[in-house]
Amino acid sequence: MLNLLAPTLVTRFIRAYVQKDAFREKAAELIAAKTGGEARIASLTWNDDNALVSEMLLENAHGWDVEAVGLHAALDFGAIRTGVWSIHSAGADEFTLRRSASAMSNLENPSDTADAVDSIPSFLRRHIPTQTEVSGFDVRHFNFEQAGWKIAETSVKAAAWESGKTSVPLKLSGGSLQTPFKAAEQAEAIKLDLVKATLRVTEEQIQLSDATLRWKQSSEATLRGSVKFETGAWQTFAHVQGVPLDEFLNAWWKQRLSGKIKGDLDFAGSRNAPVAWKADATLENGVLQGLPVLEKLATYTRAERFKRLVLDLCQASFRPEGDALRIDKIIMQSNGLIRIEGSMTLRGNHMEGDFMVGVTPETLKWIPGAESLVFTQTNPNGPPGLLWTRVRIAGPIDAPQEDLSSRLIGGAGMSLLFDSPGKIVNQGAETLLKPVLGEDAAKMPGKVIEGASGLLENGVKTGAGILNQVLPIPPQK
Q1: Same domain, yes or no: 439 and 326
Q2: What is the pLDDT of residues 119-172, one digit of tens each?
Q3: What is the pLDDT of residues 76-131, one digit of tens each?
């Protein structure tokens, strides 16, 4: 008779036990024992089969703090008779997960793991369920904080879970993602709108398999990554597209460079360690205009396209280098006109760059000495059909100095020595020769060659003289 009545007696006993404060206290002890942290459960109330916890705090559980507000769930007492704890309609109004302020992990669980129902008579204990089923878990407002990353006001839906499963899939939607990164020209760190995300939570880590985010209306990013609970190590891979470049430029460059960025970014970090990152980016619909060197090239070459340079290809790789930003694998190309390859370093408000510049032969036909004296280098890795020269840039970001203009002037002066006057006049080089011969004489180079050795010497030395004052160049190998 006792065996027949045991399931009913166990159910009645549990119904009565869960109503007591002793159950709430024991539940907190069991959570602490399982997680290795310190747990506190505020008032627990029951309405028939539905339980409500106003607040639950879990501190320093393997280095993490958890705060849940408005926890609720329904327990199917009928399923107890079949040996299952069946929980449904579970969720929370607000759930926050953040790194513990102490950033320490208590890896040793408390030794007191007494059963929550120790007071049940021994002949009934074997009828207590050993399996648990949870139909799901919904959170209206989920918040997450880790190493400068913050998820706020996101809704979460957890899939069903049962005893034996080692992970739980989660789906996030809405809310925002705050990143730890802030461009020099931005007042605040980058904040994205979270569209959706799919995660998997295990005892060791959170694995982000896919996430879609938006920024500045048309900008979109997709993310993948993971966070390990015990070590705090994390990594994130992001692909972005449609990002407006002017968000990262100062006022001077905003007037001269435009377009939208797409690319891939890798981030990684760990507890009490700085963030490491690198990025590969491409500029789409890029336009470069208003640079002094472009204005000069347009004048010298009579190619108006230089004034507003449409960039058919523009890409680079970025990575931090101490207190500086290193930009490598730079490629900028305007089809049929110019290609630029090289690298540069930004340190504070100062920039230094080393580039190979290639132009089409037609571009140089109006510049005396340019093809024979300036664009004379080779670039084995560059596309065929271009003439190349090395160009260095240095100085403040909003007023960089380059050495190409001075070398073109010097080349024009040397052309006076080695080329015939007719060739120079036919090239229409009076504009380029003004700095060498003066405005009037530049229009008649053939008439001033005789007895103008001082002018010629000045023309030959102009490029090197200006260059040595602004940007000394080591001897070419």
Answers
A1: yes
A2: 556 656 676 788 899 999 999 999 998 878 899 999 999 999 998 898 999 999
A3: 988 888 888 899 999 999 999 988 876 544 444 444 434 444 555 665 667 678 88
pTM for the whole structure: 0.72
Q: What's the alpha-carbon Rg for the chain, to the nearest Å?
A: 35
Contact 346, 327 (CB under 8 A): yes
> Helices 453-470 & 404-418, crossing angle to 10 degrees?
160
Within-domain flag for 256: no
Cα–Cα distances in angstroms (integers) from residue 374 to residues 87, 377, 388, 405, 463, in the given order: 79, 8, 8, 10, 11
Whether 33 is in a domain gets the answer yes
Kind of pairing between the strands at 137-146 and 84-99: parallel
Domain membership flag for residue 348: yes
Q: Which of 209, 236, 254 is at the close of a domain?
A: 209
Indicate the number of domains in the chain.
2
Structure tokens at 136: 């799901």
Length of the chain, in residues: 477
Which of 295, 341, 296 has the alpha carbon at shortest distance from 314? 341
Q: 440: domain range?
A: 290-470
According to DSSP, the residues that pair with 468 across neighbouring strands are none
